[in-house]
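hiii so um. not sure if this is the right channel but i have a protein structure encoded as tokens and i wanna go backwards to a sequence. like what aa goes where. can anyone help
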């Protein structure tokens, strides 16, 4: 569950990025966040991952009240929230397998567990046979699927995707969206920002529109 209650974010004295935003997102929802550039979408996501703190208002994610969150608890929080971005952010000198394994190494998983877990997510995102390729040997859509695999390998409750199809042609964009739908069907809450109207129309999910730092529309999807 994600709850925002009258959340305001100002950068400095003037830069009002979010203005008393209240939202409730249930577990396992797939939510699209749309709005023009500068509307406040990334700020909203950064508040959820605790990259930014709100100026005022309340945020509760998965039962964790962010007002009570200590700095040392942030790494644990981020394990519950996977993130992917428009520009993939893969390690160029590591293979597909190693990029995904890295997310497990840094939390101290044993080699045996890593060898068991990584192939499962490679299978989930449909990259069998590409395990030993380097990012530059993959298409943009495949690179984004590696990024998704890395984000979900620790089984986060929530996956945040900030414009994940922004760098992709329509076919690859759909491959990525299909993988996100599959991950959602496995029980992960997905929040995705997009400028792609075709994706919004076809997905038929809840669409939250942010305009000038406020929620201007919140339309329930036909698919839950
Ligand atoms: P979006 O993701 O919808 O494009 P953002 O959340 O990035 O919007 O930005 C919302 C507003 O906050 C914009 O006016 C932007 O210029 C401003 N902003 C975003 N990040 C910062 C920052 N780190 N410092 C100052 N202003 C910022």
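sure thing!! here u go:
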């Amino acid at each position: 569950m994600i709850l925002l209650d009258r959340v305001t974010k100002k950068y400095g004295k003037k830069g009002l990025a979010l203005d008393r935003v209240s939202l409730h997102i249930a577990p396992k929802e797939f939510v699209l966040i749309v709005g023009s550039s500068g509307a406040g979408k990334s700020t909203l996501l950064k508040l959820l991952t605790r990259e930014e703190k709100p100026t005022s208002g309340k945020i509760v994610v998965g039962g964790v009240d962010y007002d009570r969150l200590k700095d040392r608890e942030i790494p644990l929080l981020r394990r519950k929230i996977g993130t992917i971005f428009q520009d993939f952010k893969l390690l160029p000198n590591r293979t597909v397998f190693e990029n995904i394994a890295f997310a497990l190494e840094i939390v101290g998983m044993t080699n045996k567990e890593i060898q068991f877990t990584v192939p499962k997510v490679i299978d989930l995102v449909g990259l069998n046979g590409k395990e030993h390729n380097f990012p530059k040997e993959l298409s943009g859509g495949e690179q984004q699927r590696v990024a998704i695999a890395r984000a979900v390998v620790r089984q986060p409750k929530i996956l945040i995707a900030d414009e994940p199809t922004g760098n992709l042609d329509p076919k690859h964009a759909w491959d990525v969206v299909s993988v996100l739908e599959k991950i959602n069907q496995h029980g992960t809450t997905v929040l995705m920002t997009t400028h792609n109207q075709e994706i919004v129309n076809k997905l038929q999910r809840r669409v939250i529109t942010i305009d000038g730092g406020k929620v201007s529309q919140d339309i329930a999807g036909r698919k839950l």
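oh and The mean pLDDT is 95.
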